[in-house]
Amino acid sequence: MNNQAPTLERRIEEVQHYYGDTLTDKQDLATNVCTADEPPSDAIKAILTQIHDDVQMRFYGCGAPFPPLLEGATVLDLGCGGGRDCFVLSSLVGERGKVIGVDATAEQIAFAQSYVEHHRKVFGHTESNVRFLQGNIEALDQLDLPPESIDVIVSNCVINLSMTKADVLAGMAKLLKPGGEIYFADIFSDRRLAPELKDDPLIVGECIGDALYFEDFVRLAQAAGFLDVRVTAKSLKTIANPAIEAKLGGAKLYSITLRLFKMDLEDRCEDYGQVAIYKGNLPEAPDRFVLDNGHAFDTGRAVPVCRNTADMISKSRYRILFDVIGDGRRHYGLFQCGTPQIESVPTLADVGVCGPAGCGC
């Protein structure tokens, strides 16, 4: 362990070394943290059968960050690694869409690039819709990407590696189109971890050392303008390494999938008398659409919603799925959240009151 606190530059070098030299495939991982627990949908499973085996073995993600309605979208994958998720997204966006993978590690970019043509042929595309860029997720403004040019930003167990997560969030906010979505899976802790864990390259590389206390991430997201953070999936991680687990001091780690929207939302869930009705016109979800852990919409059923939720489903690409009744002009006070409909991170929302992060935490 190096007792000198790492600088951002040194941290980036350490992560590049870990993912470029130390790890050759997922079997080299020292823990089970950088492994996926969230089961993909049947549609994603079908696409995964078409991904090259070598690319599968270079996958170190902790979730399945593939939101619906991506046909024709421009999607940015932060920390794309060996490119597995980018190639899945290539199929989901179709030939009219674009996928851009960004990673700091030259070896990962070169590896991913070597499989572009293979997957173009597998998916039957005339031209590849995937490109890879080497760059740091803390400096997205230095990439050749125009502001407000991205429909959806995804990431899979990468943002935790950054020492300056506020810079990552600020960069994403600049690149997203108005109404755009961030949908990502990452590792979070149930408390603030000991600072010395940040000094251990192994523990950092295993997605632990710089993992944020979940509530601290919410605060960072709100400061970046994402006032309502929604949780869509959560699972407790096993470490499978007693020596590393002992250093956590009893802290628990979770893989959590989140969605954030670039729009003018409030920092609390407020009642404006609005109702949402899901049309059932998403092919993979004909009976029920799940927005987050506290908002599931049965087809044809009128559901009272706070204004944040109404805006999320009416001012994003999801607007084709819903009818929203009510103009949102008259205020009726704080919106009382119901019981979460899927497992979530424990917050005030679990006891029926909207917490600072909104209905979906």
Number of strands: 13
Segments where pLDDT lies below 50 for 5+ residues?
339-357
Q: Rg to the nearest angstrom?
A: 20 Å
Give the H and E element order: HHHEHEHHEEHEHEHEHEEEEEHE
Structural class: alpha/beta
Oligomer: single chain
Average pLDDT over all residues: 87
Biggest sheet character: 8 strands, mixed
* Distance between the amino and carboxyl termini: 36 Å
Give the helix tally.
11
CATH superfamily of the largest domain: Vaccinia Virus protein VP39
Shape: globular
Strand content: 15-25%
Give the % helix.
25-40%
The number of domains is 2
> What is the CATH domain class of the largest domain?
Alpha Beta
CATH architecture annotation name of the largest domain: 3-Layer(aba) Sandwich
For this structure, the CATH topology of the largest domain is Rossmann fold
How would you summarize this macromolecular structure in one to three sentences?
The chain is α/β, with parallel strands linked by helices and 361 residues long. It has helices at residues 8-22, 42-48, 53-57, 84-93, 106-113, 116-123, 165-175, 201-205, 214-223, 242-246, 307-314, and strands spanning 74-78, 98-103, 130-134, 150-156, 176-189, 212-213, 230-236, 253-261, 274-278, 288-292, 295-298, 302-305, 322-325.
Write the layout of secondary structure elements.
Layout: H1 8-22, H2 42-48, H3 53-57, E1 74-78, H4 84-93, E2 98-103, H5 106-113, H6 116-123, E3 130-134, E4 150-156, H7 165-175, E5 176-189, H8 201-205, E6 212-213, H9 214-223, E7 230-236, H10 242-246, E8 253-261, E9 274-278, E10 288-292, E11 295-298, E12 302-305, H11 307-314, E13 322-325
Parallel strand pairs: 1-2, 1-4, 2-3, 4-5, 5-6
Antiparallel strand pairs: 5-8, 7-8, 9-12, 9-13, 10-11
